[in-house]
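Posted in: Protein Modeling Q&A

I'm a second-year student putting together a small comparison for a lab meeting, and my supervisor asked me to include a predicted structure for GtrA-like protein. I've never done this before, so apologies if this is the wrong subforum. The sequence is pasted below exactly as I got it from our records. If anyone can share the structure token output, I'd also love a short note on what stands out.
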Amino acid sequence: MRYIILIVVSLVTNLSIAFGLFYLGFAESISFAVALAVTYILNFSGCRWFVFLSTEIPLLKQFIHFTITNGSFRILEYLSLLALSALEFSNFYVRVLLVLGTSFVMKFFVYGKFVFGNIRQSR
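Accepted answer (user: helix_wrangler)
Welcome! Here is the predicted structure, written out as tokens:
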């Protein structure tokens, strides 16, 4: 349940920034990149202290693991958006929702197993 709350907060933040910057005239690629960067810290903090309650692992070690994992996801998200844009798949809004929705589901399992390590405490 806590992961769903984090997803909603993160998604609203991400979409607000991506769509807001796009509406203001920024390129799709810039709008999405800025949104991904801003939600990075939100997601680490939310996963560590709210979703997985994983404070027994040293902060720096966990942050490094999160950075590698999240960075990999962010690169894949960004490349996926660029690929869908190049294919002219639907519109920008649908592309963003598709990429982020798929990624959020995958992250829950990867974070619980490899980064925060105590998925049993997650609700």
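A couple of things worth pointing out for your meeting: DSSP finds four helices and no strands in the chain. The chain has two domains: 1-53, 55-122.
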